[in-house]
Structures are given as C-alpha cells and as structure tokens.
Amino acid sequence: MKRYEQYKDSGVAWIGKIPAHWETVKPKYTVFLQKGAKPQELTDEDNGNLPYLTMDVLRDRANKTTMYPTSVNDLVKVGNGDILVLWDGANAGEVLFAKDGYLSSTMARFGFNTNRLDSRYWFYFLKGLEPILKEFAGGTTIPHLDSSKIMEEPYPIPSIDEQQAIVRYLDYKVAKIDKLIAENEAQVKELEKYRTAVISEVVTKGLNPDAPMRDSGIEWIGQIPEHWAVKRIKYVGKAENGLTYAPNDICDDTEGTLVLRSSNIQNGKLAFDDNVFVRAVPDSLKVRKGDIIICSRNGSASLVGKSALVEEDIDACFGAFMMRFRSNLNSKYIHFLLTAAISHYKQLFTTTTINQLTIGLINNIAMPLIENITEQKVVVDYLDKKCADIDSAIKLLNDYVEQLKVYRTALISEAVTGQIDVRDWREK
C-alpha cells in the first residue's frame, strides 16, 4: 500500500508520525467507559432475562452453561456490536464485540459522545492498540486496566469519510486473515483428536494385529490382547490433590517454590511462561520426575483433564485445582493410559453444574494394563515417535496462526495510524 504524501509528528511516542491532515484527540472527549456489575444472583434457567456476559459466553466456549441474572437492577445492558474491553484478569486489555446481555463485572463498555467517531474505526483502533492496552494493565495479583491511562492517551482521528474508508479496507482484509486463522485452528483441533485416538487405540489394542484377543469387560474398550490384565487406576498409582495457598503466600522466584497450575500445561507438556511462586511448601506436595500433573478443576470445562508428565526433576509443587498421579510403573506408559481414559470419561466430570475430576473418579477407572515391562517400552517408544510427529505438525500450524495474528494486529495498526493510505482502495 502507498503512504500519504505528507506526515507530521503526532506527539505520541508509540504512534510517531501521522498524516499531516489528521488530528489527535484524547479519548475522554469522544468516548466514555461504563464498567459491568456483579449480579445479586445467577441461575442456569432461562428466566426471560438476557444472559450474563462472561468471557466464556462471548467466546462461545463449549461446555459452559449460560447463566441469567435473577434481578437486573444496577446491571449494565449491552447489545450486539457494542465495543467491550476486558478490564480484569490475565487477558486484561483484550477488545471484543458484545452480544445482547448484561455485562460482567470484569469488563467495560465504550460509549460515544461525539459524531466525529465511527464506532468500527474505534474498534479497529483499539485492536491495533491491544498490545499497548495489555501493557497498561497493572496489579500485584490480578491485572486490571487503569482508566486514566486509556482516556488520557491521545489517538489519531481522520475525517469520518476517511475513517469509513479505513473500516472498509480492514473489514475485507481482517475477514480473510480470520478465515485463515479459523481454518488452521480447526486443523489443530483435528490433529489433537487424532493424537488422542492414536494413543487410545494403541493402549487398548496393542501393536500386534495378529495377537489373540479376549473381552476386556469394559464396554467402551471391547476386546484387548489376551495376555493383558485389566485393573482400576488406583491399583497402578496414587492420585493426590494439590496445595491450597492464600494471596499473601505468593512471593518471587528467589524466595519460594513454583506452583504448577493449569496455565503450566500447554499441549501436553509443562510450560513455564506464567509462573507463581509460594512460600513454605510441604515436601509431600513437591513433584518429582515421572509424576503426572492433571488439571482437575477449572472454570473452563475444556481445560479439565489436560495433563503433562514431569520429565525432569524441578523444584515445584502443584496447586489446589490440580492433581498429581504417581506410579512406580513406566511413567510415560501410565501417562498414555490416563490420557486415553480421561478423554473417554471426560463427559462424567464436565457437566452443566461442575467441572471437576475427582480422585474417586480417577481411582475407579478400569483400564487394560500391559504387565510385561519390555512390551510397555515398545508401546511407549511407538507412541513417543507417533505423537512427536503429530506435535510437530501441530506446532507448525500454531506458529502460523500466531504469525497471522501478529500480521493482523500490524495491519490494523498501520491503517488506523495512517502508515498506509487506503482512501482509494477498492475490493477486487
């Protein structure tokens, strides 16, 4: 895209130069913020009120129940197309469109007090600003936005006609990028399903198609190799719940022990991008190499049951919403067994009322068991190789998705700050 002929300094460090004919204005002169509120009580029954809009509802997350306020007094009503910003939490600063409903207390709505500003231009401007908004989020334990930083920071504003030209350009370009993102994310989900299916097939049927078979006595498994055993999970290891800690127990990494939480499990592996450290952890709750860490409780049903193997010794424990499974058998083999079992029984512990995998549920799951150590290793070696190949494909797709998201943000930022001139652009 071509650039404008003349530029001037915007006076805003993160924006730099803008087209010479553009203005800058503080948001407080064009928009206002309205924070959401907590309802007195919620119900899962459709009582005629509009739904209470949490991030799960706005993102159409599966297995999450839509809740309705029993009273709408003092609640903030929003409609389709209203522009929202997530105010509190790890993703504070994220910008999205509303649906018809009542706004969660963790979000705020932008309203307009001028006809100089196109609402979709403002949305795109905020999306281009999203990395900056997230930097604005502060707080010792729960990040939250500072309204003064948002409302006092000048932003560039062209004429209404030019805003609408920018919107037309971005609507077209962003839709194409979003389509690519959705297609690749769908491929990731299919590969994840395939990975689980491969694991389940191998740990329930083995690798020898000519092996004599017998009925397992487990309905969903059916026949298993004749020489395999069938045991409940509780007879192959021990499940334990994790550490409960208070906010004042949290400290920096030099003083405390890492607490493994749901965010520390990514794509079946331990990740250390979002860490919390606490003081005074009992030795009994510290992990060791070979432990399997499972997300046992979470507000998002999709996260319950995800697990990772501790593959090396680390100074860490596991949080209250997590579970540790420890076995003296081949830890990788047991992890594959648990992956298959949890995948099948997931509907039992992700319901409309509770998202919780209990020790009782884990303990009573019956699974086929290879008792021969050599055969266990053969199965593990095969699945390690197979899963590594699938994971490599997943990583390539995820990397591409992240590149697309970065490109989308950069494209939006370029357009709303006037680094490209789209006034004459036409859809081809």
- Helical fraction equals 25-40%
CATH architectural designation of the domain at 229-369: Alpha-Beta Complex
CATH superfamily assignment of the domain at 229-369? Answer: DNA methylase specificity domains
Uncertain segments of ≥5 residues (pLDDT<50)?
none
- End-to-end separation: 14 Å
Report the sheet-strand fraction. Answer: 15-25%
What gyration radius follows from the Cα positions, in whole Å? 26 Å
Return the structural class.
alpha+beta
CATH structural fold name of the domain at 229-369: Adenine-n6-DNA-methyltransferase TaqI, Chain A, domain 2
Largest sheet: 4 strands, antiparallel
User: Care to count the β-strands?
Assistant: 27
Strand order within the widest sheet? 4-12-9-10
Contiguous helical run count: 7
Shape: elongated
Arithmetic mean pLDDT:
90
Query: Which CATH first-tier class of the domain at 229-369 would you pick?
Result: Alpha Beta
Describe the structure.
By secondary structure, the chain is an alpha+beta fold. Among the domains are: 127 residues, Adenine-n6-DNA-methyltransferase TaqI, Chain A, domain 2, CATH 3.90.220.20; 141 residues, Adenine-n6-DNA-methyltransferase TaqI, Chain A, domain 2. 33% of the residues lie in helices and 20% in strands. The chain has seven helices and 27 strands. α4 packs across α5 and α4 runs antiparallel to α7.
